[in-house]
Write a structure and sequence with these properties.
Pfam families: CheR, CheR_N. Methylation of the membrane-bound methyl-accepting chemotaxis proteins (MCP) to form gamma-glutamyl methyl ester residues in MCP. This protein is of the alpha/beta class. The chain has helices at about 10-25, 35-45, 55-65, 65-75, 85-100, 120-130, 145-155, 160-165, 170-175, 190-195, 230-240, and strands spanning about 105-110, 140-145, 155-160, 175, 185-190, 195-200, 215-220, 240-250, 265, 270-275. The protein has two domains: about 10-75, Orthogonal Bundle (Chemotaxis Receptor Methyltransferase Cher, domain 1); about 85-275, Vaccinia Virus protein VP39 (Rossmann fold).
């Protein structure tokens, strides 16, 4: 490890950290993430007056402090997102919704790793732009394991720079511009924020709450953090959470070939549920 680091962080510490993260939330850090782990946790270790990572890891294991564990998990999860990232997914979502909204039931979508909220609000803007979709029959659920980003998502406040590439009609309809000390910020309108329900959710939890079945699930850039057996288990549960012929959207680098026979490709990193008999 680098001698320039002011906090002792050994190869053994990193192996231990990886094992603790895996046991806690199922995330598997690869060997290249040592520097990332140090940079994200070092500030917290300093705040606690410690000079070596081993002491911090001891604290986590011995104190069993839920708040400290949450800080640990929050620091080591990645939250890269943007409005309408992977735009082809939203084109498919629009078409799928237009096929389904003629039915007399709710249209339900789950953003399973919502991060700071841009994905969930992109889903909401796409669906609320459909004239044939009654707002009262739309249910949007957003979840993440990271409590810090969930709070940001629920607030719906962003630097205006993050929304500058959006169509002007979307900005006018769905956003408020900040004034005074909020200049340079935008906020999602309340009627859009109220359309969403936000929950903390761990995809590798022993038990999933009964949320019913969804028409569409977005679970993008999440599976890459798990090993193959965990990926397969999550996919089985996602399949069991979808309506017949429901859609699953994954990240651009995620490939579920050989991991599940419940889905059939229907576009770039887009899959349709074809095995309707999957059980959790």
């Amino acid at each position: 490890m680098s001698t320039e680091r002011d906090i002792r962080f050994t190869a053994a510490d990193f192996r231990r950290l990886r094992q603790m993260l895996y046991q806690r939330v199922g995330i598997s850090l690869n060997d290249s993430k040592s520097h990332m782990a140090y940079s994200r946790l070092a500030k917290r270790v300093r705040q606690l007056g410690m000079r070596q990572f081993a002491d911090y890891l001891d604290l986590l294991e011995k104190a069993d402090d839920e708040a400290e564990w949450q800080h640990f998990v929050n620091a080591l999860t990645t939250n890269l997102t943007a409005f309408f990232r992977e735009p082809h997914h939203f084109d498919l979502l629009r078409l799928h919704a237009m096929e389904r909204v003629t039915q007399e039931r709710h249209y339900r979508v789950w953003s399973a790793a919502v991060s700071t909220g841009e994905e969930a609000y992109s889903i909401a803007m796409t669906l609320l732009s459909l004239p044939q979709l009654n707002r009262q029959r739309l249910e949007l659920v957003a979840s993440d394991i990271d409590t810090r980003v969930l709070s940001q998502a629920a607030d719906g406040v962003y630097d205006a720079e993050r929304a500058k590439m959006l169509d002007s009609s979307l900005l006018k309809r769905f956003f408020l511009r900040g004034v005074g000390h909020n200049a340079g910020k935008v906020r999602i309108r309340r009627e859009v924020r109220d359309q969403l329900s936000f929950y903390q959710f761990n995809l590798v939890a022993a038990e999933w709450p009964d949320m019913g079945r969804f028409d569409v699930i977005f679970c993008r850039n999440v599976l890459i953090y798990f090993d193959k057996p965990t990926q397969a288990a999550i996919l089985q549960r996602l399949a069991a959470s979808l309506q017949p012929d429901g859609l699953l959207f994954l990240g651009h680098s995620e490939n579920i070939q050989h991991l599940s026979d419940a889905f059939q490709s229907c576009g770039r990193t887009a899959y349709r549920l074809v095995n309707h008999n999957v059980r959790r």
